[in-house]
Amino acid sequence: MKISKNLFATFLLLLCFSITQLHAAGEMKEPMHPDWSFEGPLGKFERASLQRGYQVYTEVCSGCHSMNLLSYRNLIEEGGPEFSESQAKAMAAAFEVKAAPNADGEVEMRPAILSDKFVSPYENEQQGRAANGGAYPPDLSVMVKARHGGADYLYSLLLGYVDAPSDIKLDDGVYYNEYAKGQKIAMPQVLYEDAVVYTDGTTATPEQMARDVTMFLTWAAEPKLEARKRIGFKVISYLLILSVLLYFTNRQIWKDTH
Amino acid sequence: MSENYVPKSAVGKWFNDRLPLLNLIYGHLLPYPTPKNLNYWWTFGGILTFCLVTQIITGLVLAMHYVADADLAFASVEHIMRDVNYGWLLRYIHSNGASLFFMAVYIHMARSIFYGSYKEPRELIWIIGVFIFLLMIATAFMGYVLPWGQMSFWGATVITNLFSAIPLVGESVTNWLWGGYAVGSPLLTRFFTLHYLMPFLIFALVILHVWALHVPGNNNPEGINVVQGSQDTVPFHPHYVVKDMFALVVFLIVFAGFVFFVPNLLGHTDNYIEANPLQTPEHIVPEWYFLPFYAILRAVPDKLGGVILMISAIAILAFLPWLDTSKVRSAKYRPLYRQFVWLFFANVILLGYLGAQTADGLFLIIGRIATVYYFAHFIIILPLLGYIEKTKPLPKSLSEPVLSPEERQMKAAASGASA
Prior knowledge:
- The complex is a heterodimer.
- Chain A has a domain at 43-145 and 197-243: Cytochrome c-like domain (Cytochrome Bc1 Complex, Chain D, domain 2, Orthogonal Bundle), CATH 1.10.760.10.
- Chain A is built from seven helices and four strands.
- Chain A has helices spanning 2-24, 47-59, 85-93, 125-131, 150-159, 206-221, 225-254; strands spanning 96-98, 109-111, 175-176, 184-185.
- The longest helix of chain A has 30 residues, at 225-254.
- Chain A is extended.
- Chain B has two domains: 34-284, Cytochrome Bc1 Complex, Chain C, CATH 1.20.810.10; 285-394, Orthogonal Bundle (Helix Hairpins), CATH 1.10.287.980.
- Chain B contains 16 helices and two strands.
- Chain B starts with 9 loop residues before the first helix and ends with a helix.
């Protein structure tokens, strides 16, 4: 009895271990873990960081990466960067989209409005590949949820460019990155000192930009994160109180049954 | 029991005379005599009913916004997550709900296996349960395909390809299932249709499951027969209604923990990458609740053999009432079975662990041993145990383990004296 029950417990432990193992699989360096404000049961995004992150995305990433699932209106929504409506309208208007066909059936360009999706850098995947030596820069809308390690991994990857060891030969268009799988990646380093000039005057170190843009991408992947945690806290508090009440009700009902 | 019910209101009486629905509900939920010693492992039946209803309700609303088309499915799920009011909540409840549904059903099955609930006269309850489990597997698998992420697509590819192992007609059957020559929109639409249909079939089977249960009544941790209405039973309401509610709320706390704080922990990150038929993921792994069966599938070098073994692993459960030859139900009174049942549980968990690993080297060897042991438990150990095991003496009634007859007499005398 004891032996087999212990065995059972051992396997349970093994299983937990295997889950952590799975996440660490693939020969890559354990990502860095900066302090994220959105972690923890009551975590929230930093508004200013999200706003700076949008700036990094538009000025650095959006040259190659689309964000098809986001619209400019999302930028003013609660729980996001919370730009003012006029700010977001101006941001949208900086891009051009195809208008609906006019009376003559011609398609002209018009400035984007809040209801438009983020404008993609390429017309189609083929154009994207042609412009990037055959590698297609993936859409970033849910990227944080689509990679093991999530925000930590993306943050580390953006900062993980170091000189390749002398025994490693890199092909054209392949770069060395400590945090990439197999240490090779088709994306070159993009975050150099002062790659952007922040409108709020923050010094644009690579660490700062990586942090801001990762925070922005985390919000993009999980735009309802703040509401989720806020509601979750209430739901669990409610259930805890209810469970205590039911526990005592149950005891009262059973007290005469032996 | 149910015949005694007389509705208090005139409307209730009018209705009940014409359709004795209130009678039925009353008889099965209110005074229904239930063994007084059911422990918390018995609360999972109620929890599972809750899970099923939750999946149906959230699924219904999700279906109003989801688009079953290979080009649109992924974006429509994200539309639910972003633009539908509380769509993120509905979807996270639905996806985590599937996992918790399986967690609960495995506990429910393990309880039945530990306390011998499947034995005479409850064989049919158990067999209906196996069919419910089978339908759950099909429903969950098809549901996982719907978001049309990489794991959806490649999971569907791997599983539907299993049908190609059927001799002679395999390829035709697979093409018929796909509705074409590859996994694509036709398969997605039919999976969506079936995913919508099956929960209602499960619901119908659940009604049969409970109906069949209420003929002999509940088994109990002692595994002995209980006379309905004797001092060994208590009315279902309020005793078990409240106990089940307490257990359900504790379960809901865990549920809410997943939904609100780690909603993607049980999922695979690759499923947030849209399906791409040209790019196979490095490891194709099913959801955690299928892993033991996945390990059995991969333990066999032959595709057809693997498929047969995997199906047998579930089908063999239906024969459990006859493979277990012991007349004693509860493991409490079966010293040897009690050892082997824990070994069996450990082995299933081991298979689950192996299902998540790459099937080669040492993992493959252990996987094969564990697969053999899984079947050996059913076709060698269980039949033999009934003959060689010396079981402990069973109590005559549920009151006996607490008080011996002498003690009861003494207690009666003492209370008589004090009165």
